[in-house]
Design a protein that fits this description.
Distance between the termini: 43 Å
Shape: globular
Helix content: under 10%
Number of strands: 31
Structural class: mainly beta
Largest sheet: 13 strands, antiparallel
Length: 496
């Protein structure tokens, strides 16, 4: 009978007040938001005994911008996100467990202006397999896979696959992104014996190991790319596109992802005993587990977030002959693996957390600079969360030449643009083409705290971030922004 508009019933039916604070901000042509809910009351909700969260925000996230024909300034942004997963466990007066996972997502949004709102051009966004479970009741016998989704292709409604054509001509629409078939796997939630547990994940290419796991095709210019970035500009049947500007591929020779674990000792170390991760397909996996209180020596709340992929190809090029009828990339990252782990034991002396990642970076490099001969090979750099700083710094300082103008009369020539480099470079002849404008890494952060009971956190906000040069020299926004591995965990055990 409560009515806010009359004083006769102004006494609320409950002594609970809920606050919901929502913050939103523009991002990539659309908007993102975060909501915080809180309850105020004189009721005792119970002391938090267990809390654990593990999240993979994404295995990979890529976005790039397209200029649309017609109205000046019309820009649209495609965002492709790889698999995600999240595990959450809590225990106060009762135990709760939640698990979610998704195989990925592709969105395309026309950017807003001061007078117009952003408009989704793919609505709803394309999604991979998606699952979400909560306990109680316990759900520990969920079918595997819990959900499956077929491959999806995102197409731009206002652009043609062949950029020399217009949509009104009845052209094949441009493919802006692709996500392979995907599964959610290992899903389980339970709260038996007041011990909340959650685990699960998602992966791509479960049954098609020879195809793309994900791709994004930036806006390209066939008239200029062969003379500037030497990109492969072939436009094949949309169903079998060969050379998107960025693609993630599986490794069919690896049986599963059990060995896709960060390796911090690399093969180029002096004793030569290091190794690399061994990954099959793009995946995200999380878990949050609560062990029994007894025996005291093994009690803990442990959370784990883990992600990786086999191969990322950036800028397939016409100057590098490849296998399977496709060109090889200028830049390649293989066997990327990232992992965070948090363990709270109720004892400040044994609480622990860790954050680590590793990857193998390969890029095309001229064998001999300034000899007017186009001849190169791949250079390999092993990167880890321990050594990336010095190695990336040296790579930028050296700034290797990727392509050299051949002798006059050769089939391919760059007389106007000159030699191409991995990073931006200016010499006496002017500004040279470059494939990357930035490459950076982060070691991740970890904390351990004994205040109010032992707790631990770990976070990798983005193991590696890359920004490419523009795929279309006339459209600076056609650069691709790439983030690999965003994941985090936290754990607290305050049981008595």
């Amino acid at each position: 009978s409560y009515n806010w508009s009359t004083t006769s019933t102004e006494i609320p039916p409950t002594k609970l007040l809920k606050f919901a604070v929502t913050v939103s901000w523009p991002f990539g042509g659309g908007r993102r938001s975060y909501q915080l809910d809180s309850l105020l009351s004189d009721r005792k909700f119970g002391i938090e005994k267990v809390n654990g969260v593990a999240k993979v925000d994404h295995a990979i996230r890529v976005f790039t911008t397209y200029l649309e024909p017609g109205v000046a300034g019309d820009r649209s942004v495609v965002t492709a996100t790889g698999p995600t997963a999240a595990s959450t466990v809590t225990s106060r007066l009762t135990a709760l467990a939640e698990q979610s996972a998704r195989g990925g997502e592709i969105s395309l949004v026309r950017e807003g202006t001061p007078t117009t709102a952003a408009t989704p051009l793919i609505n709803p966004a394309l999604s991979g397999a998606t699952s979400a479970y909560g306990a109680p009741p316990d759900q520990t016998s969920i079918p595997n896979p819990a959900a499956a989704a077929p491959a999806v292709v995102g197409k731009h409604p206002n652009l043609c696959q062949d950029p020399s054509l217009l949509v009104g001509s009845g052209c094949v629409l441009k493919q802006v992104g692709y996500l392979s078939d995907s599964h959610t796997v290992g899903m389980s939630v339970g709260t038996a014996e007041d011990r909340p547990n959650a685990s699960g994940g998602a992966l791509t290419n479960p049954a098609t190991p020879s195809t793309f796991g994900l791709y994004v095709d930036a806006q390209r210019n066939p008239a200029k790319n062969p003379l500037q970035l030497l990109l492969d500009t072939s436009y094949s049947d949309p169903a079998t596109i060969q050379n998107p500007t960025l693609n993630v591929r599986p490794n069919a020779n690896v049986p599963d992802n059990t060995a896709c674990i960060p390796q911090l000792k690399t093969p180029d170390e002096p004793d030569g005993t290091g190794s690399t991760a061994l990954c099959r397909s793009m995946f995200a996996s999380t878990s949050a587990l609560t062990s029994p209180l007894a025996p005291a020596g093994s009690r803990k709340v442990e959370t784990l977030a883990w992600t990786g992929f086999a191969e990322l190809r950036i800028f397939p090029s016409s100057i590098i002959p490849g296998s399977e009828g496709a060109s090889k990339p200028i830049v390649e990252i293989t066997n990327f693996a990232a992992r965070v782990n948090c363990s709270a034991t109720g004892n400040s002396s044994t609480v622990s957390s860790s954050a680590s990642w590793s990857a193998t970076l390969r890029f095309r490099k001229e064998l001999n600079d300034n000899n007017r001969e186009t001849k190169g090979s791949y250079e390999t750099v092993y990167l880890t969360s321990l050594n990336f700083g010095d190695k990336i710094k040296k790579l930028k300082q050296d700034n290797p030449m990727v392509y050299e103008v051949p002798e006059p009369g050769a089939v391919v020539a760059l007389p106007q643009q000159g030699d191409a480099y991995l990073f931006p470079k200016t010499t006496a002849v002017g500004i040279h083409p470059s494939y990357l404008t930035d490459l950076a890494g982060t070691a991740g952060q970890t904390t351990r705290d004994s205040v109010g009971g032992a707790s631990a956190t770990a976070q990798i906000p983005g193991a590696l971030t890359l920004t490419t040069g523009p795929a279309d020299p006339d459209v600076p926004q056609s650069a691709m922004n790439i983030t690999l591995g965003a994941l985090s965990c936290s754990a607290a055990d305050r049981r008595t």
